[in-house]
Design goal:
The structure holds 3 protein chains of 3 kinds.
Chain A lengths: L1 H29 L3 H26 L3 H26 L5
Helix pairs in contact in A: 1-2, 2-3
Chain B lengths: L6 H27 L3 H4 L3 H24 L5 H31 L21
Helix pairs in contact in B: 1-3, 3-4
Chain C lengths: L7 H15 L4 H18 L12 H27 L8 E6 L5 H13 L3 E7 L4 E6 L5 H19 L2
Antiparallel strand pairs in C: 1-3, 2-3
Helix pairs in contact in C: 1-2, 3-5
Classes of the chains: A mainly alpha, B mainly alpha, C mainly alpha.
Chain lengths: ~90, ~120, ~160
């Protein structure tokens, strides 16, 4: 009983997060400007991270944390580098 | 998933996960629906502040109960994501302000004229 | 003491995060974590000039609680706007004068305001100590400025004078 409830709610949550990913992808494709795409990419990272956490609950495994943490770190560094690039046109100054 | 979960745990975790996912989805949805960049910059923080917080807290509670020991992994991810997203958003917003001012777009506050330095001070 | 540990707060936070990540507080992890914490705090003294000190921990906790409640309220409000059939928030820029001068205090204020979905910190002007903020649903600009000053800036001025 309780496993069924949890399974279904995790399913619903994953569908919701999937819709969210599609929304960010849409914004990333249509733009219109570079900063909109970067913003969407940042949101996409976060949603992917949360999706991994829900997968971790579903599979009752803690390996997904490490992946989520990696995504968080890389997402931060990547977005900062891209924002820097927009500001000056070069990544390293 | 494991077979014998306490009912209260599954209901609590379910509510938190679904509410968190709903908030995150609303944030991403905002990226599509809102009209200008400065409006859109608000919506990803929903996923990182409360949406993400709820999902990560649900995961922490779930693993703490099922593994029968304190699992605080998620706290690290939560702190990291909540503290770094504002930083990236600020950088992006400043880059956008800079670009909008250079291109002379409308609806962007001008930078106020700087005070003239009285003497050429030391270069820092 | 000051030479070995220029940033004790940073070192403590890194040690705690290390122990959480390792999921144990055994002697080995404690030693390795302390080593890393001291090393990072030494390295950080090259880029962090001023030593961060929280003078009033209770006030800091109060600030975090206030900010947490505001973030939850703002999340729900923004969600209501977004699920409205025609989202038409009255957004606007605000230029706000700040009395807060401490770098750490300003950083904390910036992160808190941006983490709240209803507001985003855009640009700080050091010469005139004003900040440009974008607000998602702006009803009354003066009221908004007053709220931020009372709720956040007053507390931050006490914590980081």
């Amino acid at each position: 009983m309780s496993v069924t409830i949890l399974g279904w709610s995790l399913f619903v949550a994953q569908i919701l997060l999937g819709i969210g990913m599609l929304a960010t992808l849409y914004r990333m494709v249509i733009g219109p400007r570079a900063q909109d795409r970067i913003l969407a990419l940042d949101a996409l990272y976060v949603v992917a991270l949360l999706l991994l956490i829900t997968l971790g609950i579903r599979n009752n495994s803690q390996i997904y944390f490490e992946l989520a943490m990696l995504i968080g770190l890389l997402g931060f560094v990547g977005t900062v580098a891209l924002a820097k690039f927009l500001m000056r046109g070069e990544v390293i100054e | 998933m494991i077979d014998d979960l306490p009912l209260w745990l599954s209901i609590l975790v379910s509510i938190m996960v679904v509410l968190g996912a709903l908030l995150t989805m609303a944030g991403c949805f905002g990226l599509v629906r809102l009209k200008s960049f400065y409006l859109r910059i608000h919506s990803p923080t929903m996923g990182t502040s409360m949406g993400g917080g709820l999902i990560l807290l649900a995961s922490a509670i779930y693993f703490t109960i099922t593994r029968e020991r304190l699992v605080l992994h998620e706290l690290v991810i939560f702190l990291f994501v909540t503290l770094t997203t504002p930083v990236t958003l600020m950088l992006l917003a400043r880059a956008t302000l800079f670009r909008d001012r250079v291109e002379g777009n409308e609806g962007v506050p001008r930078r106020q004229a700087k005070k003239e330095p009285e003497s050429p001070g030391p270069i820092v | 003491m000051k030479r070995i540990l220029p940033h004790p707060l940073l070192a403590a936070i890194i040690l705690i995060l290390w122990l959480i990540l390792q999921q144990s507080a055994g002697l080995g992890h404690l030693l390795l974590g302390s080593l890393i914490a001291v090393g990072v705090s030494l390295a950080a003294s090259a880029i962090l000039p001023e030593r961060v000190r929280i003078r009033r921990p209770l006030k800091f906790a109060q600030l975090m609680a206030v900010a947490g409640l505001d973030i939850i309220r703002s999340n729900l409000a923004v969600m209501m706007v977004l699920f409205h059939p025609r989202p038409a928030p009255k957004a606007g820029f605000i230029e706000m004068q700040l009395e807060l001068k401490s770098e750490t205090g300003l950083a904390i204020l910036a992160v808190l305001l941006t983490a709240t979905p209803g507001s985003a910190w855009l640009e700080y002007d050091r010469e005139r100590s004003t900040v440009l903020i974008h607000v998602f649903d702006l009803v009354d600009a003066d009221e908004w400025v007053r709220t931020v000053k009372q709720r956040y800036e007053a507390l931050l001025l006490e914590i980081f004078p």
